[in-house]
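User: Hi! I'm a student and our assignment asks us to look at how structure tokens line up with a sequence. Could you show me two examples?

Assistant: Happy to help. In each example below, the sequence comes first and the structure tokens follow. Example one:
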Amino acid sequence: MTKQSSFKRAARERARATGQRYTQARADLELANRQEFAHSRPFDPAALRLHLEDRYGIAISSMMPIDDDPATRPRDSWPGHYPWTLVVEHTDGRTSRSTSPASTSTGATAHRRWIARVFSSSADRVSRVRGDAEILRFLAAHDFPAERVIHDDPVTVHDGKGIILTDFVPGGRPSADSPAVWHELADLLGRLHTLPAADGAVARPGGAEEHDGGFHVGRPTQDLAAAMSFLVSVEDSVTAGAREKFEWLRDQVESADAAEALPEALTHSNYHPWAAVGDVGNLSIVGWAGSGRGPRLPALAWLLRTAAEQNAAENVPAVMRGYSQHVRLTDEELHRLPAILNLRPLWLACLDFRMTVKHGGTPALNEGWLQPASVEQAERLAAQVIAAL
């Protein structure tokens, strides 16, 4: 079978599974295949499906990446964004003990939805996936609103790689238009940062984005290592027109503040509205793979940075009101806040640079997530934070 015929078959299967027209399903599949991390955690869906059915005694009716089906795709997401985060629809079996509010019963058969996160790259460690489950149990024990594991042993190993299963949280991603969403997110982050210290996975290094296949996990310093790797990977392809931005970004990575020696807590690695599911007043936080103990300021800084992208006059004070109900920032945190505000945007800017170069484009200095003007922007945002306090 040719590559083209295989692609057409995949598009037809996608159309049947999602109810889309063939042309839309094909366009979505093409978009998914172009995503930067679409193939960083490869797995065989058919083999995984059989493994989950055998391991948990279930009958799976559908298993697709959460972004593939418009019915489950989070707000503002796109095909291929989370290719290894799967929605598993199934009927209950001999070992499932889920009590998900998303579950429904018809007669004696319970129909359920799980989320299966597949960690299958050469860098992913099963021990860290088991640590994710331990952290989720810790959060549940402290009544923190997060996704919940589905089973006494929610981590299974297939082909030597770890898969964690949690209950599907209904409600979808909240709208970022409301200051109430930002306030609640900040309130929950403050609660997270005041949870008691614990041993085990709760104490593991955390706070770095782990989206690149698990090659850079741990504290936010790993975000800088990943950012530099993005640049180095395309250095030989950088044209004269993109050289200025390349060198400027490289200098920014080398001199960046990774928030070391600041107050620490159990923290989330990508905390903003895309980490939340549900409605205002009933949000749950998802995506805990990069969580662990690390400096608390980067998570707050990323929440502030995204809050300032729209309606900053209301959203930024809302964030500070919510967070300050639980945490009082130190003078040193406020002093270093401008630099930390640009920590995650720097990671994104280096990733965008690599993607643009790989696709034959020429990145310009004064565009994107981070540019020279971003330094002054961060100073203004930090001043707004202080005024809100």
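Example two works the same way, sequence first and then tokens:
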Amino acid sequence: MAVSKKAKNVGKNVKGKVKETTGKAVGNESLEMKGEAEQAAADAKQAGQKAKDAMKH
């Protein structure tokens, strides 16, 4: 996986975790759900990149 894409996915995952944690702390379910969705999207993209890389080797 390209380093820049991996860093971008990790950044999105961290951003999602921050949103989720903040949402839990302030009782904002919408923000919490957005954070969880962001993490899931980042994980899916990362898994897709890993599969793509595996096909190259």
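Here is something you could point out in your write-up. The chain has a mean pLDDT of 92.
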